[in-house]
Amino acid sequence: MILCLDVGNTQVFGGVFEGETLRVQFRRTSELRSSSDELGVFFRTVLRENGVEPDAITEVSICCVVPDLLYSLRACCQKYFRLDPLILRPGTKTGLKILYRDPKEVGADRIADSVGAVKLFPDRNIIIADFGTATTLCAVTKAKEFLGGNIIPGVRLAMEALESKTAQLPSVEIVPPDSSVGRSTVESIQAGLYWSNVGMVRELVRRITDEVFPDEAPLVIGTGGFAQLFNREQLFDEVIPDLILTGMYEVTRMNRPPA
What we know:
- The chain is of the alpha/beta class.
- It has helices at 36-49, 70-80, 108-120, 155-165, 185-212, 243-254, and strands at residues 2-7, 11-18, 21-29, 59-64, 86-87, 97-98, 126-131, 134-140, 145-153, 219-223, 238-239.
- The strands form 2 sheets. It has a 6-stranded mixed β-sheet with strand order 6-9-8-7-10-11, with helices on both faces.
- Helix 2 (70-80) links the parallel strand 4 and strand 5.
- The longest helix is centred in the C-terminal third of the chain and has 28 residues, at 185-212.
- The model has no long low-confidence stretch (mean pLDDT 92).
């Protein structure tokens, strides 16, 4: 069994694959000061609670955008699973041609999303919208070229900025509003957060399509914690919440040493 971990700025998103089947998914709040013991106890406990024996894990792969956690994560895997984890970083085999000016700048999460999308939808041009702490859009050609994309403050990050940087605006529940016109401060924030993201994604998808996919419309994939919030707006052709885990499974498979 393979334990795949997506370590973001807000959450750790994990999954266990048995063969190509994703058996278990779980989430944990990211904490910069988490020790290897705290992480190890959590991972072993959550696996057991989901019917997976921790000692059955044979490989661990990690996609991490929080460098300060990497030492604890590696030590956790070595101590609690007796495994040296595969960490997605520059030089790791992905099957993609990275066309960023400096390929080392591309976040591991964006690469893992792209690998997962290429696995699920080969021979398609793809735009991936990932709604995490940051919202990212990535363009990938059917020739497996990662072209680049966009990075924008995420839905929750925007809400927290309003709360922390203003004197009177409160924290709100992030939900689809009934109207574009809020009739209270809370409703106004909810409507603003929601509809600004709808408009932003539509415009960026249109511009990316016109600029790099003018001859063949791309498949648009929504993923990440907030993707399903926008289901009713028909922004995406597919919503795949666990896309990044699929990508990490493929990265693990590609980087196994020869038998």
